[in-house]
Design a protein that fits this description.
With 387 residues, the chain is mainly beta. It is built from three helices and 29 strands. Strand 24 (329-334) and strand 25 (340-348) form a beta hairpin. Helix 2 (21-35) runs antiparallel to helix 3. Mean pLDDT is 84; it is low at 15-19 and 46-76.
Length: 387
């Protein structure tokens, strides 16, 4: 018997609970059988069997008497499965993450701000997750570690969605009004509050990387921007790329705007040039869009048989990668540095997992590399803010 195997046997038997005499006899028979036929048993092997039997007989105990079973494992142990978190965890290398599903908020930051199940209409983290802004009733409220609320802004309507500028100095938000929603901008310290556009759709605004322009969807379903430097508005029509606009998202590193429609996506890089366009089949329903490093677009799409993440080149929107699965997608957010994405995936009826997915490659299965949170919700849309 090799010395290394002998060491492993001794170590494994040393960890065993103490059995009865009956189980010890069975252990002796099993150990002899493991050594092979009697004509091949070495003296060291027989001595080891004697050691094992003497150990279990002398130890005595009731641990195995209740079951009558003896299990011996040799070799590398299988790592136990990582427990599914019911408390939100902050992804490595980032400052914080916030999830809103079914009108409730889960939030965690490196600086110690933690919220679980708080009723809100929307939530957004500031750059570096120093603060959070949430919609509560007819107010826009900032939250900070230590259970502080630096300021509260009355909005006279439900806050539909909000977006913090990259420089952290401004917040764009949409407030519900009778007949049509409004786009406002408020300073990061809570004053002053400005009405920018009176009639918009309830779509999350998106800031240009220089924090001088904010994109939104107007009441006619066209993507538009409001330039804070020139106080001017500009709209463009991307309905040929799959219909009216449903979502807008600026690249965090460049002045490129992605526009998601009912059955397609467009990317606008210059106002004097036609946008890049990619239409999808009629069975596909885009859920959200984000940007990866290198100016690539990642699109979350739901179909009858499941969901997929499609990685597209930022110039001509040709497919560069795709990960698909049977799960339906509920939300999408890009990593702060564009290395991966956070997605909300429907695990089963009434259960959603929020986790991290690496850059989709061609033909791979959609799988969460790291689960950040499992929640019970029937919401078909989950909002994720990742800083």
């Amino acid at each position: 018997m090799p010395a290394e195997l002998e060491k492993q046997l001794r170590a494994e038997f040393g960890r065993l609970p103490k059995p009865t005499r009956e189980v010890s006899a069975r252990a002796r028979s099993a150990a002899l059988a493991a050594l092979g036929p009697s004509n091949r048993r070495s003296r060291r092997g027989l001595l080891l069997v004697a050691f094992v039997v003497a150990f279990v007989l002398g130890a005595g105990a009731a641990a195995l008497a209740a079951t009558g079973n003896l299990h011996v494992g040799i070799g590398a142990r299988t790592k136990p499965a990582r427990p599914i978190p019911t408390r939100l965890s902050v992804p490595p290398g980032s400052h914080g993450v916030a999830v809103v599903a079914g009108g409730k908020l889960w939030l965690a930051t490196r600086r110690g701000l933690r919220i679980e199940g708080m009723p809100v209409s929307t939530a957004e983290l500031s750059p570096r997750a120093l603060y959070a802004v949430v919609g509560i009733g007819s107010s826009l409220v900032t939250l900070a570690p230590g259970n502080r609320r630096p300021w509260v802004q009355k909005t006279n309507g439900r806050v539909v969605t909000a977006s913090w500028s990259p420089d952290g100095l401004k917040i764009a938000y949409v407030v519900a009004r009778p007949g049509a929603d409004e786009l406002h901008v408020i300073e990061g310290d809570g004053s002053p509050d400005r009405l920018l556009v009176r009639r918009v759709r309830p779509v999350r605004p998106s800031w240009r990387s220089d924090s001088l322009a904010v994109a939104y969807v107007d009441a006619s379903g066209r993507a538009a921007i409001f330039d804070l430097r020139t106080e001017s508005r500009r709209t463009f029509d991307t309905r040929r790329c799959g219909g009216a606009a449903r979502e807008v998202a600026y690249d965090r590193r460049a002045p490129a705007l992605a526009v998601v429609a009912a059955h397609g996506v467009a990317v606008v890089r210059r106002w004097n040039r036609a946008p890049s366009c990619r239409t999808l089949d009629i069975s596909a329903t885009p859920l959200g869009v984000g940007w990866l490093a290198g100016g690539q677009v990642v699109l979350a799409v739901n179909r009858a048989l499941g969901g997929s993440l499609e990685r597209l080149s930022g110039t001509d929107l040709n497919e560069a990668g795709a990960a698909s699965g049977r799960q339906g997608l509920r939300g999408l957010a890009s990593a702060p540095k564009g290395s991966s994405v956070a997605v909300a995936v429907r695990r089963s009826a009434g259960v959603v997992d929020v986790g991290i997915v690496s850059r989709p490659e061609l033909g791979v299965r959609l799988k969460l590399n790291r689960v950040l949170l499992r929640i019970r919700t029937s919401a078909r849309a989950v909002s994720i803010s990742w800083r």
